[in-house]
Design brief:
single chain, about 400 residues, alpha/beta, Aspartate Aminotransferase, domain 1, Aspartate Aminotransferase, domain 2, 7-stranded mixed β-sheet, 4-stranded antiparallel β-sheet, 14 helices, globular, binds ligand 7TS
């Protein structure tokens, strides 16, 4: 007999997120802007606060107790994240400021080996963070940027992706999950195709681990980028996972303290991994807080909350589809709980503003995916993006608030 997945107790989970019990504009907060940033559980808040109250010191430099203690906590966070992503070595986890910086690190450091005429393959589904660094690099080094198409349902067109791969493709970079439409991309298959053509692969994972258990070795990618604030951890911290053999061959991203082996007036030699890519005092409390966030996610279990989120997605899709004049954009069969929509004759910003008066927080606009919006022929959408702590009742509150939008405009 197949065992049904355990049902997540959403009330217990919600009680662990203090902000979820506040009101906004006199109404209970319904927070549906999780793709922009996620709320923090008490465990993360306590970890960061405890660090500053009891453990604060700089790392890697002190001979004193607090510094060694802080260094241990920072290294433990790296180990936790390496385990959570199934990296082979802890040194494959580089702390950065977030997904954007992780991608820029690769563009700068891996990009240094690319030659005029080389190609980078991305898709029309990308966030600007996975477009602009490649455009800058292409301009600087005379590279060609190729764009795989998307299908009307908002999936990467795999035929287009495959047809654009050639021996000229040195890097393929694509997201795990689309922030604008919620599409889960077949990253394992895309990685396989790109590697078969000899390309190095970067996965923009900003929207992956908030919803999905990530196994970088199973995906087979060379780089995986993510942001702490999107996985219920602090902001200003993120991760670049990079395959050991590859990172070792890459030049440093920034120069400064902590990343050097020896500095003389003539020459500097650099430390090994991961320090070589972590110049200067890092976001120590952020890294420790991010470790706590991954511990928290592991204690909940991705499978368990994925099932809950799929129930939220199903209800939201069904109920929003019933609203006259409302169109959902992004109808891939494999989606996380993100619903992007437009309403006839109503600007997405007006939808967002009216929903806010009801305490419902969504995002409206282009979601930093202007090429995708242009491809579909609109300037923006309203986007409700859910996390495991959202409830079916909140889906209904969203729908009721959208009905108010109708009243305003009819
Ligand atoms: N890649 C994807 C797929 C994203 O969704 C985002 C942020 C980024 C990269 C950049 O992440 P950062 O943490 O470095 O800023 N996406 C969104 C969003 O959808 N709404 O606000 C930020």
């Amino acid at each position: 007999m197949v065992e049904a997945p355990p049902i997540m107790d959403v009330d217990t989970v919600r009680a662990q997120f203090p902000i979820l019990s506040r009101s906004v504009n006199g109404k209970p907060l319904v927070y549906l802007d999780n793709a922009a940033t996620t709320q923090k559980p008490q465990a993360v808040i306590d970890t960061v606060s405890h660090f500053y109250a009891h453990e604060n010191a700089n790392i890697h430099r002190g001979v004193h107790y607090l510094s060694m203690n802080a260094t241990d906590a920072y290294d433990r966070a790296r180990a936790t994240i390496a385990r959570a992503l199934n990296a082979e070595f802890e040194q494959e986890i580089i702390f950065t400021r977030g997904t954007t910086e992780s991608i820029n690190l690769v563009a700068h450091s891996f990009g240094a080996r690319l030659q005029p005429g080389d190609e980078i393959l991305i898709t029309k589904l990308e966030h600007h963070a996975n477009i602009v660094p490649w455009q800058i690099l292409a301009e600087e080094r005379g590279l060609t940027l190729r764009w795989a198409d998307v299908t009307p349902s908002g999936e990467v067109d795999l035929d287009s992706f495959q047809s654009l791969l050639s021996e000229k493709t040195k890097l393929a970079a694509f997201n795990h999950v689309s922030n604008a439409l919620g599409t889960i991309n077949p990253v394992k298959e895309m990685t396989r195709l790109a590697k078969a053509a000899g390309a190095t692969v970067l996965v923009d994972g900003a929207q992956g681990p908030p919803h999905l258990l990530v196994d970088v070795r199973d995906i087979g990618c060379d780089f995986y980028a993510l942001s702490g604030h999107k996985v219920f951890g602090p902001d200003g911290i993120g991760v670049l996972y990079g395959r050991h053999e590859l990172l070792e061959t890459m030049p440093p991203y920034q120069g400064g303290g902590d990343m050097i082996e020896r500095v003389t007036m003539e020459k500097t030699t650099f430390r090994g991994l991961p320090e070589r890519f972590e110049a200067g005092t890092p976001n120590i409390s952020g890294a420790i807080g991010l470790g706590a966030a991954f511990d928290y996610l592991q204690s909940l279990g991705w499978e368990e909350f994925h099932a809950h989120e799929q129930a939220l997605l199903k209800r939201a899709t069904e109920r929003l589809s019933e609203i006259k004049g409302l169109t959902i954009h992004g109808t891939a069969p494999e989606k996380v709980a993100v619903v992007s929509f437009t309403m006839d004759g109503i600007h997405p910003h007006d939808i967002g503003t009216i929903l806010d008066t009801r305490g419902v927080a969504i995002r409206a606009g282009h979601h930093c995916t202007q090429p995708l919006m242009t491809h579909f022929g609109f300037t923006g959408t309203a986007r409700a993006s859910f996390a495991f702590y959202n409830t079916l009742a909140e889906v209904d509150q969203l729908v009721e608030a959208i009905q108010v939008v109708h009243q305003y405009f009819s």
